Automatic annotation (TrEMBL):
The protein's name: 4-hydroxy-tetrahydrodipicolinate synthase
Active-site feature positions: Y138, K166
Molecular-function GO terms, alphabetical: 4-hydroxy-tetrahydrodipicolinate synthase activity
Coiled-coil annotated residue ranges, if any: none
Record's function text: Catalyzes the condensation of (S)-aspartate-beta-semialdehyde [(S)-ASA] and pyruvate to 4-hydroxy-tetrahydrodipicolinate (HTPA).
Gene3D superfamilies attached to this UniProt entry: Aldolase class I
Originating organism: Pseudoalteromonas amylolytica
PANTHER family (alphabetical): 4-HYDROXY-2-OXOGLUTARATE ALDOLASE, MITOCHONDRIAL, DIHYDRODIPICOLINATE SYNTHASE
Length: 294
C-alpha cells in the first residue's frame, strides 16, 4: 500500500517533539497546534522518534498519540517511528499502525544490542516485510551504538517499500558509501547543521529538529541548500543550530519552544530534564538570528 502523498515532494520532515503538561501527561491540545504549524509550512511530520521521546512513552500513550495525530488528517505526510529492542513488539507496533492513516515508517536500528550485518539485515527485513507503507531506515550510531553498513543496504534494497535512509552519523564518507551501495534509495540528512554539505553530495532532504522551533525558516533553508543558493546564510544557520544540541536533544529545542510560547512547559520525561540547560542565552541569540531572516 502506497502513501497518499508523493514523498519526494517533501524534502523536509520535522521530528516532532511530544508536548507534556506540568503533570507529565501528553498535552494533546498543544500537539494539535504543533501539527497545524507544520502543515502550514508544508513540512512532513515524524512522530515518536527520539526527538519525540518515543521510548519514554508507554504503549498506551504511543498508540493514543498515533491515533490522535492520524485522526487529525494532516494535509502533509505523517511518518511514525519504529524502534526498540524486542522484534516481536516492533512487528506488533507496525501491525497496529498499518490500520491507521499514516504514510511512512522510520525504522531504527535495535538499541543496545549492537548486531552485525546479519542481525541488522534480519531485523530490517522483518520490519520491511510487515510494513505496508514506504520505509526510511535510520542510521544513528550515536544513539543505537551500531552503524548500518552499506552491505546491509545492499541486502535490503530488493524491498519495494525501502524508500529512504536517514543518515545521522555526521560522516560525509558514510553518506557517499550509502549512495554507492543503494543508488536508488533516497538519503536524508539527519543533522540540521550538515544539510548544505549533504545537499551538495546528493541528499534528498532533511529530517529536522530545528523545524520544531523554526518551521518556515527551516523549510526555506532546505530549499536553498538543495538549490545551492545563498551560501552566506550557511554559517549563520550552523551557528544557530548548534545551540539546539548543546545538551541532549530534545532538551534545548523544548526549552526554546517554551520561550517562544509554543509549549506551556519545557517538561521532558526522565532521564531527560530541562534543568540540564541552566543558561539559555545562546538559544535566544539563535532564535533572534533565525527569525530575522527575510
Amino acid at each position: 500500500m502506497k502513501s497518499q502523498f508523493d514523498l519526494s515532494n517533501y524534502p523536509l520532515w520535522t521530528a516532532l517533539v511530544t508536548p507534556f503538561d506540568a503533570d507529565d501527561n501528553v498535552d494533546y491540545n498543544t500537539l494539535e497546534q504543533l501539527v497545524n504549524e507544520q502543515q502550514q509550512a508544508n513540512n512532513g511530520i515524524l512522530i515518536l522518534g527520539s526527538t519525540g521521546e518515543g521510548l519514554a512513552l508507554d504503549k498506551h500513550e504511543q498508540r493514543a498519540i498515533v491515533e490522535y495525530v492520524s485522526a487529525l488528517a494532516p494535509t502533509v505526510p505523517l511518518m511514525v517511528a519504529v524502534g526498540g529492542f524486542n522484534l516481536q513488539e516492533q512487528l506488533a507496533w507496525i501491525e497496529f499502525c498499518n490500520t491507521l492513516a499514516i504514510d511512512a515508517y522510520l525504522l531504527g536500528s535495535p538499541v543496545y544490542a549492537k548486531p552485525g550485518d546479519v542481525g541488522q539485515t534480519q531485523w530490517f527485513d522483518a520490519l520491511l516485510s510487515k510494513a505496508q507503507k514506504p520505509c526510511m531506515l535510520y542510521n544513528v550510531p550515536g544513539r543505537s551504538a551500531v552503524s548500518i553498513t552499506p552491505k546491509v543496504l545492499k541486502n535490503l534494497q530488493h524491498h519495494d517499500n525501502f524508500w529512504a535512509i536517514k543518515e545521522a552519523s555526521g560522516d560525509i564518507a558514510t553518506f557517499e558509501a550509502f549512495r554507492n551501495a543503494a543508488p536508488n534509495i533516497a538519503i536524508y540528512s539527519g543533522d540540521d547543521g550538515l544539510m548544505p554539505y549533504f545537499a551538495q553530495a546528493g541528499a534528498a532532504g532533511l529530517v529536522s529538529v530545528a523545524a520544531n522551533a523554526w518551521p518556515e525558516q527551516t523549510a526555506e533553508f532546505v530549499r536553498r541548500s538543495l538549490a545551492g543558493t545563498f551560501p552566506n546564510l550557511f554559517t549563520t544557520w550552523t551557528s544557530a543550530v548548534n545551540s539546539l544540541f548543546s545538551v541532549a536533544n530534545p532538551i534545548p529545542v523544548k526549552v526554546l519552544m517554551h520561550a517562544q510560547g509554543k509549549l506551556a512547559t519545557p517538561h521532558l520525561r526522565p532521564p531527560l530534564t530541562h534543568l540540564e540547560l541552566p543558561c539559555t542565552q545562546a538559544l535566544h541569540s539563535a532564535n533572534d538570528s533565525i527569525l530575522s531572516w527575510n
